[in-house]
Amino acid sequence: MGNLEGKVAIVTGAARGLGAAYCVALAHEGAAVMATDIRECAETVGDVVAAGGRAIGTTADVANANSAKAIADATLDAYGRIDILVNNAAMYGNLHAGRFHTLDEAEWDACMAVNVKGLWQCCKAVVPTMQQQGGGSIINISSLAAVYGIANALHYATSKGAVIGFTRALARELGRDNIRVNAIAPTMVDTPGTSEIMKENRDRFAEAVKRNQTLRKTLETEDLVGTVLYLASDMSKFVTGQTIMVDGGTVYL
Ligand SMILES: NC(=O)c1ccc[n+]([C@@H]2O[C@H](COP(=O)([O-])OP(=O)(O)OC[C@H]3O[C@@H](n4cnc5c(N)ncnc54)[C@H](O)[C@@H]3O)[C@@H](O)[C@H]2O)c1
Known about the structure:
Elements: E1 8-12, H1 17-28, E2 32-37, H2 42-50, E3 54-59, H3 65-79, E4 84-87, H4 105-133, E5 136-141, H5 144-149, H6 154-174, E6 179-186, H7 192-198, H8 202-211, H9 221-232, E7 243-246
Parallel strand pairs: 1-2, 1-4, 2-3, 4-5, 5-6, 6-7
Helix pairs in contact: 1-2, 1-9, 3-4, 4-6
The site of nicotinamide-adenine-dinucleotide has 29 residues, from helix 1 and helix 7.
């Protein structure tokens, strides 16, 4: 029996990349999964079901309150409870990198709306159910970009820094409800999103990232999912407000 048998998990930004991998891993541990994204999640749902897991999908914009509530409602309709929320959706692959003064103002605003406000909308949508159930686990995806201070994506790094403050402050508010709120800050992983934002600089950047690490290999998706499973499960039941660096020892908190 998996660690998450009987639990229900929502993963945002689940159409591809890391979000899709989290869905497969959570379902493998026994969770029933709601895969949601602004894009179609049919492929992710197909992958989970093909591996013998339970998943459904919905298309929604996490930055919008009504749409975030619709995710929670659809999850409750299908599965009757919500135990885990992975706030993974972000403007990342679709951002333009560049020096701070060249960034587009509309893109800056959109980045904050999705990467920061989106967490708030989704938490507001699921927390009442978690409170009624007597607990839950919220996992927010930050980034090494925020903690290290990676250059040339100031909007992105700033938004992921906000994820850490959000996590700490909300953890303080929800501890009384036995709802844990933690963040994960991964280093660079080779995903479609990474290729899109890094373009021709991807391999050079990956080498530079590796040189700064204690462990001398590039992070792969399969090395990251374990931290999500740990924070989702009761194995971490006394852990809240934390940011776990999954960065091969680039920075030590
Ligand atoms: N890949 C990396 O190197 C890396 C490193 C650290 C952190 N992260 C974070 O991990 C997460 C996933 O990254 P990824 O590499 O799979 O990249 P990605 O760009 O493919 O993932 C983001 C997903 O969020 C979705 N999304 C964007 N706006 C949305 C909205 N308004 N509503 C709902 N969904 C929306 C996208 O459609 C996409 O599927 C992101 O939060 C990213 O910031 C990635």
